[in-house]
Specification:
Aspartate Aminotransferase, domain 1, Aspartate Aminotransferase, domain 2, 3-stranded antiparallel beta sheet, 2 domains, alpha/beta
């Protein structure tokens, strides 16, 4: 089976972890801070702070932004559920609006209609590494005095007009899960240009301590830190991130050219001013002959690690259909998500599938993938 992803961990990462182990300083420290500096320079922000995961990055950032129980945050349903859950964890209300059928990203034309007096923020998700229309989103946010948190957990290296995502909102969050463009196994990062937000995030992620450390605490906080053992992997990953993203783009371009000959399969569309990081390569199937699930099964039978990742959009997940069981429902008036109708997201859930696009793919493996698609569609 050609794997849908293949983590690239080389001797440099092994030696870096070994050095941390030998140092005896294993918790968040100078190696984590080196990772932060490298990452903020790469993204193009003044500040960055590591966290234990992409999810804790999101919850830390949202709390620093002042999201309270009952506050509404507008976001997309076509994403990994951690995006919406990070809002609900704080007692916030995820307000789902539909996506654009070609980019799969939140539709800015629908955001403004969803704004109410309870709305506090917008969380666009750069799905599969494809940038959202951040110019439009930031204009809407400015008009309505809202904060914007980029969920860039899948978008390392993605760009809009030469600026990397993660530097376009008021704050942004990344994940370093083992399948991501940059990996540490588990881990996250928050980026921002806002010093006040940054200082609040430092406290929230570290038991409410001030940035000077010690045992003085100023608010309720958590342990959302990253160990230096983990950060050491990230430091080494940063040295090759540009080449890894470049290879993903090359692989995606090959697929785009190949699929142009097939009317039944349509790739995710990229705006000319955007550059996806291609965390995943995810086309849609439009066929009268076979279903998406049959397509995935046929590809897997041919040795291709195909999948369908977001079959159920967030508003169709039991988590939100049963939101009244969530502890905050005693205090927060959640909507009846069973009545939420988002046809494009639901249609994408039934049509999309992904094929391997990772940098380790060989020429022979890509030829095998293309031949398998051709055979299934013929």
């Amino acid at each position: 089976m050609i794997p849908f992803t293949k983590p690239i961990v080389e001797d440099e990462e092994i030696q870096a972890v070994k050095r941390v182990l030998e140092s005896g300083m294993l918790a968040e420290g100078k190696v984590a801070h080196e990772f932060e500096k490298l990452f903020s320079a790469y993204v193009g922000t003044k500040y960055a702070t590591v966290t234990s995961s992409g999810t804790t990055a999101l919850t830390t950032a949202l709390e620093a932004m002042g999201i309270q129980p009952g506050d509404e945050v507008i976001t997309t349903p076509f994403t990994f559920i951690a995006s919406a859950n990070s809002i609900a964890i704080l007692g916030g209300i995820p307000v789902f609006v539909d996506v654009k059928p070609d980019s799969y990203n939140i539709d800015p034309d629908l955001i403004e209609a969803a704004i109410t007096k309870k709305t506090r923020a917008i969380m666009p998700v750069h799905i599969f590494g494809m940038p959202c229309d951040m110019k439009r989103i930031m204009e809407i946010a400015e008009d309505h005095d809202l904060l914007v948190i980029e969920d860039a957990c899948q978008a390392h290296g993605a760009e809009i007009d030469g600026r990397r995502v993660g530097s376009l909102g008021h704050t942004a969050c990344f994940s370093f899960y083992a399948t991501k463009n940059i990996l540490t196994g588990e881990g996250g990062m928050i980026t921002t240009d806002d010093e006040e937000l940054y200082n609040r995030m430092l406290m929230i992620k570290n038991h409410g301590r001030g940035k000077e450390g010690g045992y003085s605490h100023f608010q309720i906080g958590y342990n959302n830190r990253m160990m230096d053992i983990v950060a050491a992997i990230g430091v080494e990953q940063m040295k090759r991130v540009s080449s890894l993203v470049k290879k993903r783009r090359q692989n995606a371009k090959e697929y785009d050219r190949f699929l142009a000959d097939f009317e039944a399969v349509r790739p995710q569309k990229q705006d000319p001013a955007f550059k996806s990081g291609y965390h995943l390569y995810v086309p849609r199937l439009y066929s009268d002959k076979l279903s998406r699930d049959e397509m995935v099964s046929a590809l897997r039978n041919a040795g291709v690690g195909a999948r369908a990742v977001y079959v159920l959009p967030c508003h169709k997940q039991d988590t939100y259909l049963n939101i009244q069981k969530w502890r905050w429902a005693k205090f927060v008036d959640y909507p009846d998500y069973s009545k939420v109708n988002l046809p494009i997201s639901e249609d994408l859930g039934a049509r999309h599938f992904d094929i391997p696009v990772h940098p380790s793919l060989t020429k022979e493996e890509k030829e095998t993938i293309q031949e398998a698609i051709k055979t299934v569609l013929s």
